Amino acid sequence: MDIDELAEKLENSVLEDAREVFSETVIEYTYNPRNVGEISDADGVGRVTGTCGDTVQIQIRVENGRIRESRFLTDGCGTSIACGSMLTEMIGDKTIEEALVITSDDLLRSLDGLPEEYVHCTVLAVDTLHAAINDYTRILEQPDKLMRDKQGDDQG
């Protein structure tokens, strides 16, 4: 058996084992993740490390009040990859308000469920999205603060 055959056999074995535990949706989003990477001109960036040690980063680009692009990175397990990938798809073209009401349960349903010991990955992904939105909101509020500070300087 050559190295390519061995690699294929090993991959098939891993997939068979995964199918006993995870939904086809989780497997698809783990092996073929969407929206991986970074946005060079991101409007909001969230980066959270979960209790499990996995770190997820989500970046968003907002136009006219809607999330037009989102990307994620993680150093975590396949489930963290699936969660980041699915969540970035879920928030596409949503308003900030619509994205903020997405829960870990919504993400869990979109993935067709997870074993109990991996549910924390959905919480980590949603917490990271909230951090990115908070970053975006903070940046939006800064010009107003700068204007108030400037006006205060002019009056004093």
Describe it.
This protein is α+β, with helices and mostly antiparallel strands. It has a single domain, classed as Sufe protein. Chain: A (Alpha-Beta Complex). It contains 6 helices and 3 strands, in the order ααβββαααα. It has helices at residues 3-21, 24-31, 78-90, 96-100, 104-110, 120-155, and strands at residues 44-49, 55-63, 66-74. Strands 1-2-3 form a 3-stranded antiparallel sheet. Helix 5 (104-110) packs across helix 6. The longest helix has 36 residues, at 120-155. The chain is elongated, with a radius of gyration of 19 Å. The termini are far apart.
Count up the helices: 6
- Helical/strand content category: alpha+beta
The whole-angstrom Rg is 19 Å
- Placed side by side, the strands forming the largest sheet appear as 1-2-3
Shape: elongated
Strand content: 15-25%
Main CATH class: Alpha Beta
Largest sheet: 3 strands, antiparallel
Task: Return the CATH architecture.
Answer: Alpha-Beta Complex
**Number of E-type strands:** 3
- What's the assembly state of these chains? single chain
Whole-number count of domains: 1
Helix content: 55-70%
CATH fold name:
Sufe protein. Chain: A
List unreliable stretches of 5+ residues: 145-156
The residue-averaged pLDDT reads 89
| Succession of helices and strands | HHEEEHHHH
Q: N-to-C terminal Cα separation, in Å?
A: 82 Å
